[in-house]
Amino acid sequence: MIASDVLVAQNVGFAIIAALMIFGALRVVTTNNVVHAALWLVVVLAGAAAQYILLAAEFVAVTQVMVYIGAVMVLFLFGTMLTRARIGAEKDLNNKNWYIGLPVAGLLLVTILIALKDGFGDEKMPADADLFTVAQVSDLIFGPYLLPFWALSFLLLAAVIGAIVLARRD
Amino acid sequence: MSVVAAETAEVVLSSGWFLENAFIIPIIPAVAFALIIFFGKRMPMKGSEFGIASMVGALVMSVGAGYQWIQRVNGAPEEAYIEPIIRTWTWWQNGGIPLGIGQHIDGLSIVILIVVAFISTLVQIYSTEYLHGDRRYTHFFASLTLFSAGMLNMVVAENMIQLILGWELMGLCSFMLIGHWWEDGANSRAALKAFFTTRTGDIGLLVGTSVLYFAANDWTQKTLGVSGFSIRGLSAWALSGEPSSTAITVGAVALFIAAIGKSGQFPLHTWLPDAMAGPTPVSSLLHSSTMVVAGVFLVARIFPVFYEGMNIYGSNVNFIIVIGAITIVIAAALAFVQTDIKKVLAYSTVSQLGYMMMGLGAGAWLPAVFHIFTHAFFKACLFLAAGSISHSASHHSFDMKKDMGGLRKFMPITFGTWIVSTLALAGVFPFSGFFSKDEIIDNVGYAGYTIFMWVGLLGAFMTAAYMTRATYLTFFGAPRGAAAGEHHDEHDAHGHDAHDDHDAHATHDAHAAHDAHGHDAHASHGPRESGPLITIPLIILATLAMGSGLLNAVPFGSEWENFKKWIEPRGQVVSVTGIDHSAGSHGESRVIQPEARVTAGYESDCGKKTPTDGVCYAPQLKHAKFKWSKAALSLAIVAAGIIISWFVSVQLYTRRNKVLVGLTQRNKLLGAGYAFLVNKYYLDVLYEKIIVRSIAYPISRGAYWINQNILDGIVNGAGTGSKTIAGWVYRNIDQRVVDGAVNKSGDAAQGAGSIVRPVQSGKVNQYGALLFGAAAIGALVLVIINT
Amino acid sequence: MFVNQFLMLAAILFCIGVYGVIVRKNAVLVLMSIELILNSVNINLIAFSLRNGSADGHTFALYVIAVAAAEVGVGLAMVLLMYRNRRSVGLDELSGMKG
Amino acid sequence: MEVLSDNNWVLTVGTFLPLVGVLIMLFIPKADEALAKAVAIITAAATLAVGIFTLVKFDYDKADQMQFVAEAEWISVIKSSYFIGLDGISLPLYFLSMVITLLVMIYSWNHVPSPGNAKAFFALMLILQTGMAGTFIARDLVLFFVFFELVLLPMYFMIGVWGGENRQYASLKFFLYTMFGSALMLVAFLALFFQTGAESFSIPYLIEEGINIPKNTQIWIFAGMFIGFAVKVPMFPFHTWLPDAHTQAPTQGSVILAAILLKLGTYGFVRIAIPILPEAAKEWAPWIGLLAVIGIIYGALGCLAQTDMKRLIAFSSVAHMGYVMLGISTLTEFGMNAAMFGMVAHGLITGMLFFIAGSVKERYHTLEIKRLSGLLVQVPKLGWILGFSAMASLGLPGLAGFWGEFPAILSAYQPAEGLPVGVFRTYMVIAAIGTVFAAAYLLWLYQRTAFGEPTAEFSSGHGHDHGHGHGDDDAHSDIHDVNKFEWIAWTPLLIAIVVFGVYPQLMFKVLDPAVGVTLKAFGG
């Protein structure tokens, strides 16, 4: 009973958050103001974090909040500031290929939805799933997935150097 | 004979202070070196007194040691093995194993010690006059003294590492001494070449030492309680039947390569003649009598290793003997075409070293060592005589054809000593050369190496011939050039002998020497005899060149063979009970049995079958029976050489005989041969022009290019790579160069085919659209297939 | 909770992102759209890892986040350079790759 | 392992005393340079005094054990503790770092490179000193890492501020390169930490536990450490930062870099990578050996191609560290001893060479080999010292260089069992050939710079009957022979080179037992 309540609550929560996210996402790709777009993106990212919590992934959620909303968004805002003189709405943020964009996106969406429909039907999440501890994740990172981890650190290093070299004035 | 063994079992070998402390001998000049460096300039004689004093001290100690060694030998029974005097101190350690430094004194080391100390003394005395007033007089004596320290240290060396120490020190000193007048590029180049060539040979030394160490160490530690570096250990191990044939062969070959480099054997002999760029005393000491025999000494020192490794006696040809024989002939041939008197002597040195090597290769250990002994005296004498000529007669030129001739009237003493030494070198009876060289040839034949015996005889003929030529050009005929008192200046010195630039160097450095001398007196008057400081050493050496052969005058019967008795290690089995195994005690001195007892039977012959009760330190060596018939043959050959050469020289140089003069110009074949010789078989071309050049320039440049462009490129790629991408984007954005960009990407597009060309709108968004559109369609297809 | 609800949410976000990538002209906005896509993928990963009861998905989600961060960094740096060079971040002036 | 922890304050004091000096220097006005220098040098001297005290108190019969051990809680969260100690392997390097720092400072008394600001310069050197000494005594991976990185920044500023024309590039390259290395190293440390049950970072503990790590994981972890250390050594092909850093760095920077910093890498191998991960070490040894011999030949070729004296010396470091790494890769006592000895010898000799290069630069304002000639004529003492150092560097027996070079070659003949013998014997021959190359480039350098007459542009005003080029004597007025600060700074090095060359047992006695312990895992 209680479990079902919880489930209900979960579903409600999911619905609200999902709706928010979708709306936010749409605004991100449609608004005429870069700064607003960034802020809407924050909404989406935060929603994603919330979804992670629903999906029993606290750690990822926290990381999401820290990395994205903490770091990436700041980056975006900085990028906006640095690349644009004035903040505010303006006309030519979009180009003229919405007539390509809509069909492509639509087609993709339809296809995927169909695939998912007959892929998973109404399969349910395991209700009594216990949380994944950080320890489990770290074991994986430093165990079987050590190699990709290194690859990743290389990538980050390269990114750091690249960013420095690119952004330096010379 | 075993009866003898029984009663001699209790004999105790005598020893003495000089023998026990022979390790001090190299330390004396080492200290003197430091003194010269620090205080030399302030001393009245500019530091030379330190050098000479130290040399005298070393000489005294060596002679003392020699005397006591003779006592030791005489005190021992006939055939008994004479225990060397070995002392070690811990020098360094590894894995708890102490590795020593110390002394290994036996007959061989005694002989070389005396020779080195003696000749060094004379040469230093000689130099006080010869380099008087030189700009770097003090440095010269410092290097000379350090050299003696190195050589003496190598001779007393107890183990291979210590030997390498001395070996490399000598290399360094010869670098400094050859380049003594380094203001002239030619000299410093010659110095570089000498050091570099010997260093190349030293690869063999390092490798060989390593190989032998690891092969022998366990056995030596177990049996003798010494490390695998120890000379004693290596000798015993080599004869113990332990070693795997590959290990010992590789080791022996590697070490012999080092010997080739140091002793100027073919094909690494090319540095020695160039080394004549150094001052004459240096040529006399380093490059004739002492340093260059280091290679020979190495082979003689651990002869058992080569004996087993090269399978001497066991086969009728081996590496050592072949190299030796080749060296004899090619060097002698080269001596014919030299116009520089020092180069003639240099090649003759190379050739004589070839004799020593051939002797060792044929198992004629004793004659070879004896030849080191005699050769040191007469070759040093010849060089000093040449120096005396250039010093006093030919105005610092060494060119026989230009600046000499008819000097016998002006400098009788130099002439006399020269003649004596020449006869000794040619091997004329009863001069010392005869007793050593002839013995080598004889024993080579006796040991069954018949072909090489004939090579030796051929060498004897050539030796006699080229020495006669040199003598004639120098002392007979009419005085020429500087000998005639005229002073030719630097320029025509450069001009002459265009085909052989090394002569140009020699003359050139003569001028450097002359600048160094400061006093220009020679220009004024003609040739004259040199001062006593030069002539007295000459006389002493000449006397020894005459008499030293009698130390081992085989022809006069066995009672004359003192050298054999004192020096040659006797191939007897020695029981190892005598040797204390208290090895590895850190620090303090470790005396291995100065008074080893002589036991075991004599009939067991080392080197033929493996010793059972004990170890062998030396193989039993064969000795040829002397026959006057054989001696007569070689003497006849020598005489023929002298006479023919004399006749030719007279015809060629004085009578200007039409048939002979310019023969090489007229006759193609001879001309070619002449050019071939003058260019030293083009080996230098191979080494310098091809190998060294290619490494020094293209290869290293190439490697460096890789470094800068590929490795560094990869590294910078992390940073500048993304930068270039950005730059590329920027360039393409930039309208001014848009055409070039169009062409560039146009090429890319053509690769894709001109149908898709319109798709290449260059708009990122469209690319994205295409990407995702394609993805969508692909997904659709999959979905349709799967459902 | 259905598995699909998450997957479909992800799909929708993904497509919105795709749309953004295609229609947006401002480079910064394009980057944002790409972020949307990456997030939708993350949601998928997490969802599946819950469904399969293994933490691998989490690991990779983390990796993806890291990669995304790097990508934004470099991307913005390039945008910056581009802006510095020609006072605009409009992507469709970038027609240099035109064939 | 049993540890001796009597007067355990010594190491801490010896390590952090320089920082105290820095604190004092903060209160000195920037203008008062002499005072700043004096304070700095006094601090360094005091540090050295502590070092000498350590040297005296060190129990040489127990050189195989850690001494002066001090252990204290540090970052208990990650189970890392302040754990320091000294054994036969660390002692020479620890002491060397102190000596070099002091000598460099004395040298800097009248050689502060532009743009001046002696205060900052000396302060940086003191900080460097702490970092270096700390690295050699750390017995805890985190501590080690902290010190290891602490060295980085001062050197970065030294090159970036006081360096040559191209210093920006060089310093950035040095910094990023090393950062990149240490990043992987840190990952490897963490992996090690977790693989051994996240119990402790202390090296002895990890040596106990490390053997139990599955081999494949070991290999990966070792790879991480390998790159981290190899960059520092530097090994081919990670060496490209070295020539730039050396060429651009001020003399003092080059000396410290060559004498101590490069040793951090090799030390890391000997102290951490190999004893903790023996299995992986065995797997990697042939490859390390290969890179080492490539480095030997390749560095030599690089030298032959140089036209700049300092850059040539820098490349020679690559070759010499190749010998060190070859010794290490054999995993035998011979090799390790040789490597350790080689480190110290290389520190002394190459440090000396860089000093000389600096002084030549100061006198001639160039290091172009073409333009330098006849040093022996104009500055004879400097010329002879150059010759001496060159001889030492090419491994002449009787000087320190030989004892790092020859045993390394020797050891390659018989590597630890389990390693491919044939391969290593090939390495041995190649390394032996390398010695000839060493002779070639060093003597060639010497012949071209020291011998002959000075080139026209510098010979003017020196009474040589040569074309008085453009006779601006003010340019040549500073061509003087070795001055007294240089004598003070150089004499100890020269003496050390001779002493260790003549009686190597001085150091082998200390190294050998400790090395034996390090190689326990290989039945050494």
UniProtKB/TrEMBL annotation, chain A:
This is Unannotated protein. Keywords: Membrane, Transmembrane, Transmembrane helix. InterPro entries: NADH_UbQ/plastoQ_OxRdtase_su6, Nuo/plastoQ_OxRdtase_6_NuoJ. GO terms for molecular function: NADH dehydrogenase (ubiquinone) activity. PANTHER family: NADH-UBIQUINONE OXIDOREDUCTASE CHAIN 6. It comes from freshwater metagenome. The chain crosses the membrane at residues 6-26, 38-59, 65-85, 97-116, 147-167.
TrEMBL record, chain B:
Residues 91-141 form the NADH-Ubiquinone oxidoreductase (complex I) chain 5 N-terminal domain. GO terms for biological process: ATP synthesis coupled electron transport; electron transport coupled proton transport. Residues 485-527 have a biased composition (Basic and acidic residues). Keywords: Membrane, Transmembrane, Transmembrane helix. Pfam families: Proton_antipo_M, Proton_antipo_N. It is found in: Membrane. The chain crosses the membrane at residues 22-40, 108-126, 138-157, 163-182, 194-216, 236-261, 282-307, 319-337, 344-366, 410-434, 446-467, 533-554, 631-653, 767-785. It is a multi-pass membrane protein. GO terms for molecular function: NADH dehydrogenase (ubiquinone) activity; NADH dehydrogenase activity. One of its GO terms (cellular component) is membrane. The keyword Transmembrane helix applies. Its main location: membrane. Residues 484-527 are annotated as: Disordered. Residues 157-463 form the NADH:quinone oxidoreductase/Mrp antiporter transmembrane domain. InterPro entries: NADHpl_OxRdtase_5_subgr (IPR018393), ND/Mrp_TM (IPR001750), NU5C-like (IPR003945), Proton_antipo_N (IPR001516). PANTHER family: NADH-UBIQUINONE OXIDOREDUCTASE CHAIN 5. This is Unannotated protein.
TrEMBL record, chain C:
Gene3D superfamilies: 1.10.287.3510. It comes from freshwater metagenome. It is found in: Membrane. GO terms for cellular component: NADH dehydrogenase complex. The lineage of its organism: unclassified sequences, metagenomes, ecological metagenomes. Belongs to the complex I subunit 4L family. The chain crosses the membrane at residues 6-22, 29-48, 60-83. Its main location: membrane. Keywords: Membrane, Transmembrane, Transmembrane helix, Transport. It is a multi-pass membrane protein. One of its GO terms (biological process) is ATP synthesis coupled electron transport. This is Unannotated protein. NCBIfam families: PRK05715.1-2, PRK05715.1-5. GO terms for molecular function: oxidoreductase activity, acting on NAD(P)H. The keyword Chaperone does not apply.
Automatic annotation (TrEMBL), chain D:
Residues 75-129 form the NADH:ubiquinone oxidoreductase chain 4 N-terminal domain. GO terms for biological process: ATP synthesis coupled electron transport; electron transport coupled proton transport. It is a multi-pass membrane protein. It is found in: Membrane. InterPro entries: NADH4_N (IPR000260), NADH_Q_OxRdtase_chainM/4 (IPR010227), NADH_UbQ_OxRdtase (IPR003918), ND/Mrp_TM (IPR001750). Signal peptide: none annotated. The chain crosses the membrane at residues 9-28, 34-56, 91-109, 121-138, 144-162, 174-194, 219-242, 254-278, 284-305, 312-332, 338-360, 381-404, 424-446, 487-506. The keyword Secreted does not apply. Residues 138-414 form the NADH:quinone oxidoreductase/Mrp antiporter transmembrane domain. Keywords: Membrane, NAD, Translocase, Transmembrane, Transmembrane helix. The keyword 4Fe-4S does not apply. GO terms for molecular function: NADH dehydrogenase (ubiquinone) activity; NADH dehydrogenase activity; ubiquinone binding. One of its GO terms (cellular component) is membrane. Pfam families: Oxidored_q5_N, Proton_antipo_M. Belongs to the complex I subunit 4 family. This is Unannotated protein. It comes from freshwater metagenome. The lineage of its organism: unclassified sequences, metagenomes, ecological metagenomes.
